[in-house]
Design brief:
Blueprint: H1 3-12, E1 18-20, E2 26-28, H2 30-42, E3 45-47, E4 56-58, E5 73-74, E6 80-81, E7 86-87, E8 92-93, E9 98-99, E10 104-105, E11 110-111, E12 116-117, E13 122-123, E14 128-129, E15 134-135, E16 148-149, E17 154-155, E18 160-161, E19 166-167, E20 172-173, E21 178-179, E22 185-187, E23 192-193, E24 204-212, H3 216-220, E25 224-233, H4 236-241, H5 244-248
Parallel strand pairs: 5-8, 6-9, 7-10, 8-11, 9-12, 10-13, 11-14, 12-15, 13-16, 14-17, 15-18, 16-19, 17-20, 18-21, 20-24, 22-25
Antiparallel strand pairs: 1-2, 3-4, 22-23, 24-25
Helix pairs in contact: 1-2
């Protein structure tokens, strides 16, 4: 399959940069990522006209245009969805937001203002990506997994997720949570530390935390480093607190 065909199939949602196998594990489609890199290599920088006058980018990776038939609500005000990204019907994109090449955004999801969905990131159904959320992308190395956000997750304002972290179904991340392979996650309910880079469990409610810096000098200075804390798992009360989401739609 050529890079042109790959970009078209990505936009249709018929192929993805990463997908779940029968056991529910996410696997990278390295051929898709190779095709995207080939598209960048083949592209030439050009000046755009019309509403994009003054912008310069690869000629073969322009911003996507939507119509009513797509059933995507793309609110005016500076958002952009790049060529090769899939956006399902029922998605709402508030300005300004950006969805990069190879990303997959499933039905019913809201992408709020100043949010970034990075290259090849995978966003499930009915996810709320709140204002200023940063979901990192990855094209290289080819085998590296992108960030995965599964169905019905809620990412509050200012959340940052990078380095291929997986957020499982129904998880809620409080404002300001930062997740990466180097940020430890402590489950205060199960009284354990998650393995480095492990997925955030289903229905976990995660808040920002701190932990003491190792070493005598750091402790003498009272220094702390960032971590994330699972403080509870979703129940009827926590679900009620998220009910405003349906009203906003």
């Amino acid at each position: 399959m050529t890079w042109q065909q790959t970009l078209t199939e990505l936009e249709r949602g018929s192929i993805r940069a990463a997908a779940q196998n029968e056991q529910g594990h996410w696997q990278v489609n390295s051929q898709v990522k190779q095709a995207i890199l080939a598209a960048f290599k083949a592209g030439n920088n050009v000046e755009f006209d019309g509403i994009y006058h003054g912008f310069v980018d690869k000629h073969n990776l322009p911003a996507r245009a939507f119509s009513v038939a797509d059933k995507v609500r793309m609110v005016p005000g500076g958002s952009s969805v790049r060529r090769g990204a899939y956006v399902a019907s029922g998605v709402i994109i508030m300005p300004p937001a950006y969805i990069n090449v190879g990303a997959y955004v499933d039905t019913g999801t809201m992408i709020d203002s100043h949010a970034l969905v990075g290259s090849c990131a995978q966003i499930g159904k009915n996810v709320h990506v709140s204002a200023a959320v940063q979901i990192g992308g990855v094209l290289e190395p080819i085998g590296a997994s992108p960030v995965i956000i599964e169905d019905n997750a809620f990412l509050s304002a200012g959340v940052i997720i990078v380095e291929g972290i997986v957020v499982k179904k129904g998880a809620v991340l409080a404002p300001g949570v930062v997740l990466s392979a180097s940020v430890p996650v402590y489950d205060c309910v199960q009284q354990r530390q998650l393995p480095k880079g492990a997925a955030i469990p289903e229905n976990a409610i995660v808040v920002p935390g701190t932990r003491p810096v190792a070493g005598a000098w750091g402790q003498q200075q009272g220094l702390n480093m960032a971590c994330a804390l699972i403080v509870k798992y979703r129940d009827q009360q926590s679900d009620a607190a998220l009910a405003l989401e349906s009203v906003l739609r």
